[in-house]
Design goal:
alpha/beta, Rossmann fold, 2 domains, 10 helices, about 35% helix
Length: about 280
């Protein structure tokens, strides 16, 4: 693989460290496929580090997809306007919470896109979290000098010309799959413990029923419609059960979100490949 490209967003569960493993599996499964579909695109690390002719990139988070579309449409203007917020005066709790209020009150797509990037880089740990009313509520991050990702923004905008971005449910994304595609799913992960659940990424969350439904959709898509599907998730008794019809590989990854740096231990992660040929990997 060529030198990796970083996403411009900080992202809980981002796949930058795993793109080689994921891209290799997608290449084996895709054969003549010219399109990558991601129902849970997140920060886009897999998109940025694969080479398909076309991309259909979806996420249930409307602010994320709005940001991608605005950046794709007018990269120079977007980068220029966003840069203005990355000044020392704005790296302060009062400024952050004022901009957060402005974001939550705004109905202007472009304004929300600029502020979403600002809060991503100035908020705590790059989290994206909303309350039940859909209000963004991530606290201030207390960074010495937040990084303005100009190079990464332009790299994303350039490649985004090959992509179509949509904001819909994962189920709708599966219902509208194009021909000659391969699918990669990076859903919100099954919690490793009862206290580790993180379901506030978007209003409504993503529960165990959704996890099982996604596995069923992947199975139907691969075995009935002949479109390979790769899903990544934590390695648990539950995920092994719902992915029982897939070929499973285990890789070790570091936690990306932890309040203490020394608490970022390696955990096992499942790569579940649904492929009509059923010849990839080992269980």
């Amino acid at each position: 693989m060529q030198q990796k490209t970083r996403a411009f967003l900080k992202w809980a569960g981002g796949k930058y460290s795993l793109v080689e493993d994921i891209a290799r599996r997608l290449k084996v499964a895709s054969q003549d496929a010219d399109t990558l579909v991601e129902p849970f695109v997140g920060a886009g690390s897999v998109f940025l580090n694969t080479n398909f002719k076309k991309y259909y990139l979806n996420d249930i988070n409307a602010d994320l997809i709005n940001l991608y579309n605005e950046l794709k449409r007018q990269p120079d203007e977007f980068v220029s306007d966003a840069r203005k917020l990355f000044v020392e005066l704005n790296n302060h709790p009062d400024a952050y919470y004022s901009y957060r209020l402005q974001f939550n009150a705004s109905v202007d797509i472009y304004e929300r896109a600029i502020l979403f990037l600002y809060m991503n880089r100035h908020g705590y740990n790059g989290l994206c979290r909303y309350n039940l009313k859909g209000i963004f509520n991530v606290p201030f991050g207390k960074y010495k000098r937040p990084y303005f990702p100009e190079k990464e923004l332009y790299a994303f905008a350039c490649k985004a010309q090959k992509a179509t971005f949509t904001c819909q449910s994962y189920a709708d994304a599966f219902r509208k799959l194009p021909e000659n595609a391969v699918v990669y799913c990076d859903p919100p992960y099954v919690p490793l413990s009862k206290t580790a659940s993180f379901t506030s990424y978007a209003k409504g969350g993503f529960d165990l029923d959704d996890q099982a439904n996604l596995a069923n959709l992947a199975e139907q898509t691969a075995f009935l419609h002949r479109t390979p599907v790769l899903i990544s998730n934590h390695d648990t008794v539950w995920t092994r059960k719902i992915y029982s019809q897939a070929n499973l590989d285990v890789i070790q990854v570091k936690r990306t979100i932890s309040p203490k740096g020394n608490g970022r231990n390696k955990v096992n992660e499942l790569m579940a490949m649904y492929d009509k040929r059923e010849c990839y990997g080992t269980r």
